[in-house]
Amino acid sequence: VQLVESGRGLVQSGGSLSLSCEASGIAFSTSAKSWYRQYPGKGREWVASITGSSSSIYYRDSVKGSFTISRDNVKNTLYLQMRRLKPDDTGVYYCNAGYVSPEFDSWGQGTQVTVSS
Questions:
Q1: Contacts made by residues 42-49, CB under 8 angstroms, sequence distance 24+
Q2: What is the Rg, in whole angstroms, of the alpha carbon atoms belonging to the chain?
Q3: Distance between CA atoms of 92 and 72, rounded to whole angstroms?
Q4: pLDDT, tens digit, for every residue of 26-44?
């Protein structure tokens, strides 16, 4: 299993950023996927999940209305569109298989998102 996140960036508060996660080695089209983030010195937290068919999507309360998770099963890619970013959204963002709870113990390198005030 290989998960490669991309789309790192530095934006001002209120700005937007898009992240991507390319997956290989797993049945991408049938498995739920999620985004997580980790603040410096803190544990990783769940951000958003999407089922294999995109029929069910779930966000943590703090990102509802600002973040959009989506996927392209042909390209084996997961996306996270982030709008109206806040400094609290700063962190390293990761993707993993699973719905809310991560399926794999191993993680990719993540991608850094920094939001300045």
A1: 44/94, 46/100, 46/101, 47/80, 47/93, 48/80, 49/98, 49/99, 49/100
A2: 13
A3: 22
A4: 777 788 999 999 998 899 9
